[in-house]
Design brief:
CATH topology: Double-stranded beta-helix
CATH architecture: 4-Layer Sandwich
Number of helices: 5
Bound molecules: succinic acid
Distance between the termini: 76 Å
Strand content: 25-35%
Radius of gyration: 20 Å
Helix content: 10-25%
Strand order of the largest sheet: 1-2-3-16-8-18-4
CATH superfamily: Clavaminate synthase-like
Structural class: alpha+beta
Length: 287
């Protein structure tokens, strides 16, 4: 009797598919397993999607620390972690974000709690270009991250405010033990002046580059006016219509562009565990 054998067929490659996540910003990319090699054509698709949507999401990924860093490397050199705290992740470019405490001490690199809207490392002379966050353990409810579109924030400002900001720098300072805006920044461990409106080097679009957590003053304005204008800018850039709220699932990998987005980590999950791995990509001086 003839035996028919069927050679195992390679799984049909799923196409690279993009699904917008909100009217404001963000897109999910489907059809890619980040453990597979990424060629130049695929890398270009990632870059184009990222520049168009500002935040990209891939779900259901299984990544060790090396694979996460390889993904980040597509967008530029990963930055070594510089947190003052020690934590258990071994790769020098991977930071542990967690609310877990062992022997009463946090095991993560960032302080626990709500993290007001900010862009990563804007208190440093050369802030991160991109941040990659990989979800490992997520509360059953809550612990979302909100992303805001800083291009739209700038483009929808009243013209008189755009003119008031033109050519001015903003002062950014951060006290690493706080995650909400503090009344004083005397304890800031790092601070930097950057343009209040920056131009994205790849897209040429202008983005509002101030944020509630770290921006303290606008150069050359009387203190009262600077405080009032900053308050208006913060409220403007945090409007829900400019925001995408990401509800995390374990296995999500999200990458955002710090040159044209802000983000805010919500702390509404009590003592439930939240564990993520973070890698940042080295940027350039904002212009
Ligand atoms: C961050 O600000 O880098 C952390 C965001 C988060 O934990 O959702």
């Amino acid at each position: 009797m003839e035996t028919i054998t069927t050679a195992p067929q390679p799984m049909a490659a799923k196409p690279f598919t993009v699904r917008p996540l909100s009217p404001a910003l963000g897109a999910e990319i489907m059809g890619v397993d980040l453990r597979d090699p990424i060629d130049e054509a695929l890398k270009q698709k990632f870059l184009d999607t990222w520049h168009q949507y500002l935040v990209i999401l891939l779900r259901g990924q299984t990544l060790d620390e090396d694979a996460q860093v390889r993904f980040a490397e597509m967008f530029g050199p990963p930055a070594p972690v510089t947190s003052g705290r020690s934590f258990s992740v071994k790769h020098p470019a991977v930071m542990l974000i967690s609310n877990i405490r062992e022997d009463g001490k946090p095991i993560g690199a960032l302080p626990d709690g709500e993290m007001h809207f900010h862009t990563d490392q804007c208190h440093q002379p050369v802030p991160a270009k991109a941040t990659v966050l990989y979800a490992i353990e997520i509360p059953r409810e809550g612990g979302n991250t909100l992303f805001s579109n800083a291009y739209t924030a700038y483009e929808t400002l009243p013209e008189d405010i755009q003119q008031r900001l033109a050519g001015r720098r903003a002062f950014n300072a951060y006290d690493q033990d706080t995650t909400t805006r503090s009344a004083s920044y005397d304890d800031a461990r790092a601070s930097a002046w950057h343009p209040a409106v920056r131009t994205h080097p790849a897209t040429g679009r202008r983005a509002l580059y101030v944020n509630r957590l770290m921006t303290r003053e606008i150069e050359g304005l009387p203190r009262d006016e600077s405080d009032a204008i900053l308050q208006k800018l913060f409220d403007h850039q945090e409007q829900p219509k400019l925001v995408y709220e990401h509800v995390w699932r374990p296995g999500d990998i999200v990458m955002w562009d710090n040159r044209c987005t802000l983000h805010y980590a919500v702390h509404d999950y009590g003592d439930e565990k939240r564990v993520l791995h973070r890698t940042t990509v080295v940027g350039g001086k904002p212009n």
